[in-house]
Amino acid sequence: MPDTDYNFTDIENKWQEYWKDTKQFKAIEDLKKKKYYLLEMFPYPSGDIHMGHVRNYSIGDVVSRFKIMQGFSVIHPMGWDAFGLPAENAAIKRNIHPAEWTLQNIAKMRLQLVRMGFSYDWEREVAACLPDYYKWGQWLFLRFYERGLAYRKSASVNWCDSCNTVLANEQVEDGRCWRCKTEVTQKFLEQWFLKITDYAEELLEYLDKFTVGLNTF
Ligand SMILES: [Zn+2]
Q1: How far, in Å, from the CA of 44 to the mean position of ligand 1?
Q2: pTM for this predicted structure
Q3: I need a labelling partner for 131 at 20 to 30 A (CA). Which of 5, 10, 11, 196 fits?
């Protein structure tokens, strides 16, 4: 370590406090400015921010600050992809409630992201496992259902008799459950499907219009 008077803890704390107090990264609608929406991705709250996150979110942070300095009205949100199979599996493994496990991890990871000094508008934070977020998924599902775009049918899934759960393809290793090594069987279950094929042609037709946004940077 070079001998230096630069005190990282003091300096980073000082500026991060200042950014927080002055709401430096709050997304404010300003009609005089051009809008810029920047979303890297919402991490799954596994418990720790790892170097893959740091790399990914550092790149996004650079883009965000660059666009702010170019005069754009930037919205740079953060949230948590916090629902489903991984949370259930982690909870089974640790023998605690999935909600407890997930919310603890979110609190810990939020703190780590804040300490990185990333330019998120934390007032817009969302967590996919909380009712104020997933109510919109439910609302959309009902609209799909009313229009015949959500339907049920029986289909085969990977099933572990010992864990009593469905397994995603990547959780089947050499035909066995990744957790308990029991042989995976195929089981027919009633499942919900979305009729996305109804929109395949339309998507193809409009594909050439989807380059907007990629070339503005
Ligand atoms: Zn298993």
Answers
A1: 22
A2: 0.77
A3: 196
